Amino acid sequence: MRKRPFLTALGSIAALTTSVLAFPAPASAANPDQMSNPMQTVCLQPVNGSTSPGQLIVQATCNGSAVQRWTRSGLSYVNNGSGLCLNAAGPAIVGHIQTIQSQCNGSSSQNWVPGSSVPGAVTSLKSQLSGNRCLERAGGAFVGNGAWLSPCIGTLDQQWLIPSN
């Protein structure tokens, strides 16, 4: 009996392709004006969707709401739900500075420089508040965790999909 390795290999490739294509899409994908981690599983927003100044910025399941949308204005990022700016002048915890939202005033704590100028690129977001500090997901990408400043070292926790507008 003659074996047909080509047909066997072709059948294996077809089965593999079918199984790969059967995987569901991610539960929630970020919109272009949301700040999210590269895996797009969580987005940054004020705690409990608050529109009040001084509230911590936390990670939440991406849902496309206004409080998860940010607009770049010069060097600042303005929350579309609250009209307040992403601010690196929150309380300090374990050697990190937590981010909050506050009235936009152009201070260095509200100025952020992306590591890449390519729109839609995954990039770090460096604070102009102090030296070499980047926005980082506190404790990894988990709902309820905050976002704080840490020394820029290029880890996945410091990579973001950010609005280019």
From TrEMBL:
UniProt entry tagged with the keyword rRNA processing: no
Transmembrane segments: none
Keywords: Signal
Residue intervals of the Ricin B lectin domain: 31-163
Signal peptide feature range: 1-29
Keyword Nucleus tagged: no
Name of this chain's protein: Glucosylceramidase
Organism: Actinoplanes philippinensis
